[in-house]
Amino acid sequence: MNTDIKRTLMISGMGSTHGGNFHAVKLEGLGRIESDITCTYFIVNGRAEVNGNVTAASADIKGTATIQGQMKARRAQIHGRVKIEGSYSGEQLEINGAITITGACEVEKLNANGRLHIGTLNADAVIITLHGHCEIGEIGGERIQIRRQPGLNLSRWLKILPVAIGNYLNAHTIEGDHIYLEYTTADIVRGADVTIGPGCEIGLIEYTGKLQQDKGSKIKHSEKL
What is the pTM of this model? Predict the structure, then answer.
C-alpha cells in the first residue's frame, strides 16, 4: 500500500466512481465503486457497493456493504450488514450485525455479535455471540468461544416449529486448543480442553486434555487421545 497518496475519495448522497489508490475513501449515502480500491481508511456510512477488491489499513462500515471480490483490512469494524463475495484477511475484525463471507476468513482476532455465514474461519482468538442462525463450515483457532445471546429461550418452540429460528451455529468442524461451545451443532470437535455448554449436538469429540459437558447437550462419541 502506498502511504504517500493523499487523495480522498468522497461520495456524499448518491454516486458512483472508479476505484484506484487513495488515502481515504468515504462513502456517505449510496455509493458504488466500479473497480478495485486501495486506501488507508475505508469509511462507509449508508450503503456501499464495490465491484472489485478492497484493500485498506482500517475499515469502518456502518450500514450495508456488498463487495464483489476479496477484502483485506488490518483492522475492521462492522456495524450493519456486509456481504463479501470472496475471502477476507486481516488482524482484527469486529462485527456487530450480520456478515456473509463466501470464502475464507483469516484474522488474528474475531469478535462478533450477530449473524455469521462464513465458508471457513481461521483466527487465533474467536469470540462469537450468536444472534440468529449462523453457519460456518470450518473453524480453527487457539481459543474459540461460542455463546448464545442471553434472552428469550426458544428451545421449547424449536422442537415443534419446522422453520430454522433461534440463536445457534451449524459447523462441520471446530478445531482449537481451548474450546467453549453453546447452542452449536457440529460433526467434529477437536481440541485440548473442550467444554460443551447447553444446547449442543456434537457427532465426535477428540480431545487431549479435559472434556466437560452440559447434561442437556448431546455427544454421540468422544475419545481422549
Answer: 0.89
